[in-house]
Records
---
Amino acid sequence: MKDDGYVDETLQDEQTGEFSAEAGEELTVSIENVDVAEADDEQVQSDAISFRLDHADDGPILTRSVSEPETLDVTIEKSGTHLVIVTNGAADVTIEPSE
């Protein structure tokens, strides 16, 4: 977690980042250094991580597959604690107020 309460960390397989945000807040989500995990089963190869942004009480806000670095803008609809989850690999995730 960053000093300002947002996220700036490497997340991997089921590890979560947590932050608080107010309704109406506009945030920039940056996903970099994407490292997709090698599949145990050669029949099931993935070329992307799974990225999820959840409201702690209400569930998923944003879910997407990410194979290359990308930046997204998100407007928070409900105040409270939010979670960031990465599965199928690792990525550096930064969430901060939009400029």
Note: The chain has no helices and eight strands.
---
Amino acid sequence: MKFLLLVTSNPFSKDYNTVFKLAKELKNHGEVVIFFSGNGAYYILRKECKELHDLGIRMLYCAHSVHQRGIEKPLDFFESSSTYNLSRMLPEFDKIIAFN
């Protein structure tokens, strides 16, 4: 199966641990992609996310959200994207889970 986690909540919210634990568990059942948008863009500053990348989890962020928040240098294991690209990818996923 192919899973998408859409994260718009900031990494200091109650969702942080849930996102990490769920992504790790879902990786045991298929491909996992995490898309960070809105305040979720702040995840791209968290070095802990490298653990997810090392597990083979793809992590994308909305470049516009990052720009709006004044984030200048995302960590190198995140991929720049857009909500337009997200909308085009949605049909590829079997399950989509949103955290906001």
Note: The chain has a mean pLDDT of 96.
